[in-house]
Amino acid sequence: MVKDPDDQVRHTIELVFDKFVELGSCQKVLRYFRQQNILLPRRHPCGYHEGQLFWKPPTNSSVYTILTNPAYAGAFAYGRRQAEPARQIPGRPRTGHLHRPLESWHHIQQDVYPAYITWEQYESNLARLRQNATAVTTPDQRARGAARNGAAILAGLATCGVCGCRMKVAYRLAHRYYCDGRRRTRDEKFCASLHGPTIDAAVTEAFFEAIRPAQLDALEAVLAAQAAEREQLSRQWQERLKRARYEAHLAQRQYDAVGPLCGLPGYVA
Question: CA-CA distance, 134 to 18, in Å (whole number)?
Fold first, then answer.
């Protein structure tokens, strides 16, 4: 197996991984692709269009599939989905298959395919996706979470120090961080309800204090990242234009190759 010879296909796949490293969540990568009107390549695995390449609007599942597929890290894996007998429907052997964590896969063989990312980066991406989870199941599995929309700086990130659940945000005159984990599970009082602006001010001050020694370096890094992003977007549109021109030229050649049938108007051979 080799990488797809189509430049646009390869560059689009690379862009998915680059943006996940930069933005940190599958949903933000999806939002970026939607805002920039970037389509994702897909080859039909079977049926009438088997093997043909199509460009489709990205979805959360398509982005997640790319990020979690070990083939893009050059590895062959067997046992990513395994049967759960309790979930299988009698007479339907393909039902009840669940995705398993990497450590539970039956077999992994690295360096089988040409890789888009390293295996270390792949494992880092999986860890980042797990950390983005909003649910906390056990005290030793405190997911960091992903930043959410809203004026609150810690929306989606703050964790309750009492029960370990993800804190919620209530927006009124001034937003508040609160946790109702014990109320939902034990019918007890709220774990905490904290004044949001006060916490945000402390977080902001600590952030700027931390970056003050390297503000110039940070500014240069931001400008360099913006320049790289503009170059990536320009390349995407140039490749789409190149593909459109090729398809138009191909259609014209096919049309010109069709001859008239018996000289009758309205018919071609």
Answer: 23
Both tokens assigned to 59 = 């979805």
Find out if CATH 2.30.40.10 is the number for domain 1-82+98-132. no
Delimit the CATH 3.90.1750.20 region(s) of the chain.
Answer: 1-82+98-132
Give me 261's structure tokens: 């049938």
The 8-class DSSP code of residue 168 comes to E
Q: Pick left, alpha or beta for residue 76 (phi over 0 → left; psi -120 to 50 → alpha; otherwise beta).
A: beta
Q: How far apart are CA 165 and CA 159, in angstroms?
A: 6
Mean pLDDT of 174-192: 80
40: β partners: 56
From the list 223, 157, 162, the residue with the least C-alpha distance to 189 is: 162
* Per-residue pLDDT tens over the stretch 155-182: 878 888 888 788 888 888 888 898 887 7
DSSP 111: S
CB contact set of 125 (below 8 Å; sequence gap of 6+): 17, 20, 21, 67, 68, 117
**Cα 16-74-106 angle, rounded to 5 deg:** 110
Does the model's pTM come out above 0.90?
Answer: no
Q: Hey, what are 197's tokens?
A: 């602006």
The full DSSP string for 251-265 is HHHHHHTPPBSTT-T
